[in-house]
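Please check these two lines:
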Amino acid sequence: MTFLTIGHRGVMGVEPENTLRSFVRAEHEGMDVIELDLHLSKDGALVVMHDADVDRTTDGKGPISDFTLAELRELDAGEGERIPVFEEVVDAVKAPLQAEIKDTAAARALAEVLAGRDLLDRVDVLSFHDEALAEIRTLLPTARTALVASRYGLDVIDRAHAVDAGMLVLNIRRVTLELVERAHAAGLRVIGWTVNTPDHLKLVRGLRLDGATTDFPEIRRAARFTA
């Protein structure tokens, strides 16, 4: 299987994260897959943001869930960009997507969009929340899903199997060769995050991971020459 380079929130190292500008740049730079994050607005829109509040990435303050979509659209998400909704990203780029559910409540809304727009072959559903992946599996039995983990041990393999996920997306600071080999033996692909330096890239290639999530386009180019 080809080693994948995944654009983290687009290419957040060089563009405002989780904006259409960042996603279009990621596609232009040749990223194999583009990753994004999802929350629900007060009125139920699938808005593309990482944090639960708007403070860090916009000129506003407060929880996303306190804003309607129209109110969120008034905020500056960096360099004049506006907060997009998931459907706009689907239309703006043609690359495969990884949609990470940050708020478990967004699972049902995402499932409706994926089914309604026939996106199951293009979008992988990711989450730290086992229950969100379980709900996606119930709603969309053929969806491709991945369990994301930052603090974990070998038990993460059993967690993935419990929710029928086909992939692990793991913080590279804890990845071991034993875990990767056991995951592969169990039929799971393993992606590492966040891979932002040549040393990070050498590590994940040496551990035989299946891909790397990165903030920078340069990692995509370097990955072609790193065995």
